[in-house]
Write a structure and sequence with these properties.
There is one protein chain. With 478 residues, this protein is an alpha+beta fold. It has 16 helices and 15 strands. The relative contact order is 0.07. The N terminus is likely disordered.
């Protein structure tokens, strides 16, 4: 307890952002701009320069480093304003235990950028000799992170020092002072830096002021209503940053409750989507950007109810072909409905790896598993050996497997099934996602599985081997 008290008493505020000239302004445009940096202790001899747009980094170029970790790269006057991400490689922990690459985000707004840092402490060690935008941006990020951490600690301390405790007023005062200082700091930054792109990011990232006395539930309700008070959904340039996507994801997290059953959690997410899409629907481009980001997120977790809800409420049934995500989602939802539990599986006729024609409705086994997979899919290559063990010990009259690969390379497919000794019905038309079977079964990811009964009615649509085992247990197959 004493350590907590000491930590809180040592918390201090910062002064507001300022510079010697009173405010920041942009210099005249040039044909080219130099991006130059030195990153010590790099785990590899190159970095990958990417642009943040459409939710995931898009590779622009691979840049070699010299033996000191230095590089230079030219951006042009036609390079779009926004955040550019440098992918730096994996640290030791990520290499051993798995995880994503370390990266560095930089603002480009038509100015030279020159910096140095250390791979093992990117944000702490970064220093800019050129780029006012990035100096301000990184100062804000550090201030923002530290203030949020301090506020969270103080908020949690209410459990130990509830109202009525002698220390409660001190905690409350510090909490309110931190918020007030943060607001003054960001207000000053927005005023001083109004001509810089960084001001757009700061404005949208700001969080609403919270009353210290609010309970957890009241705080949650307030945040749900005021989370986007500072977000500018009219600013299309924010689509070239991670601001809109991170704000959207953060808002969904407010509705996440691990205590809720799946169907009620889905309804909570639908409520969040209604509010989010309502706020974003002030600019068509930004609205589609946010909507498509949410669609992609729920596609990754294969949430049929939520994707159906979005398709039925937030995309037009006769949408234009240019709205590709809406077209794709409407087609996917059409597949959900046609391949719902209890419905008949579509007719499926394939040529197996021996050139023989095989038809789904000719399979006489009591149960049939239709599996779409690929040799390049890590989840598939991990699951197939497990499935083989189960298949080999199961009577063919009890269960058959039709495994359709969406590979594009015949050798990769053939080598994989031969090496694995997979003797079920194997097929691949080498057309990837555009093959007839993949199209008829609305396949968007691998592995995709459908467990069918003797009459080819859909019994289950497992997304993992564990879910498949659970479904098979109900049929008497262990």
């Amino acid at each position: 307890m004493n350590k907590i008290l000491l930590f809180v008493l040592l918390i201090i505020g910062y002064t507001a952002c300022n510079n010697s000239n009173g405010n920041y302004s942009k210099s005249a445009d040039k044909p080219e701009y130099l991006l130059k940096g030195t990153i010590s202790n790099m785990p590899q001899a190159f970095i990958v320069l990417t642009s943040i747009h459409d939710y995931e980094p898009e590779v622009i170029d691979t840049i070699k480093l010299d033996n000191k970790g230095s590089f230079s790269y030219k951006l042009t006057n036609k390079s779009h304003i926004g955040i550019y991400r440098l992918m730096l490689g994996k640290d030791m922990k990520a290499q051993f235990f798995g995880g994503g690459e370390t990266y560095l985000d930089l603002i480009f707004n038509k100015e030279d950028i020159e910096f140095s840092t250390d791979f093992n402490a990117i944000d702490d060690k970064i220093s800019f000799t050129k780029s006012e935008e990035n100096k301000i941006y990184f100062e804000f990020i550090k201030r923002d992170d530290k203030t949020n951490t301090q506020l969270e600690i103080l908020s949690q301390m209410k459990e130990y020092f509830p109202e009525g405790d002698d220390f409660y007023p001190d905690i409350k005062k510090r909490y309110n002072t931190l918020q007030d200082n943060y607001i003054k700091y960001t207000d000053n930054l927005l005023r001083e830096c109004k001509d810089l792109f960084v001001s757009r990011i700061v404005k949208s990232k700001r969080y609403p002021k919270l009353d210290f006395a609010l309970t957890f539930m009241d705080k949650s309700k307030y945040m749900k209503l005021h989370y986007f008070d500072n977000a500018d959904f009219n600013d299309t340039l924010l689509m070239y940053t991670d601001v809109l996507s991170s704000k959207s994801f953060g808002y969904l997290q407010l509705y996440r409750n691990q205590q809720l059953p799946k169907d009620k959690q889905e309804k909570e997410f639908m409520r969040a989507i209604d509010f989010l899409f309502g706020r974003a629907n002030v600019n068509e481009k930004v609205y589609k950007y946010v909507r498509n980001y949410i669609i992609k997120g729920f596609e990754r977790i294969d949430s049929e109810p939520i994707l159906t809800y979005i398709a039925e409420n937030y995309t037009l049934k006769n949408t234009c072909e240019s709205d590709k995500e809406a077209v794709k989602l409407n087609r996917r939802v059409e597949g959900f409905k046609k391949l719902s539990l209890g419905s008949k599986a579509p007719t499926l006729t394939v040529n197996d790896n021996n050139g023989k024609k095989k038809s789904l409705y000719d399979v006489q086994a009591e149960y049939t598993l239709v599996l779409f997979w690929a040799s390049w899919c890590p989840h598939c290559t991990e699951m197939l050996p497990q499935l083989k063990k189960l298949y080999d010990k199961t009577d063919r009259n009890k269960m058959e497997v039709i495994a359709i690969s969406i590979d594009s390379d015949n050798k990769s497919w053939q080598d994989f099934i031969i090496k694995g000794g997979y003797t079920w019905i194997n097929s691949c038309d080498l057309k990837i996602w555009d093959g007839k079977a993949a199209s008829d079964y609305y396949v968007y990811a691998t592995p995709t599985m459908l467990l069918l009964d003797k009459d080819k009615n859909i019994l289950a649509k497992p997304t993992s081997f564990e879910e498949l085992k659970d479904a098979l247990k109900k049929t008497g197959i262990n």
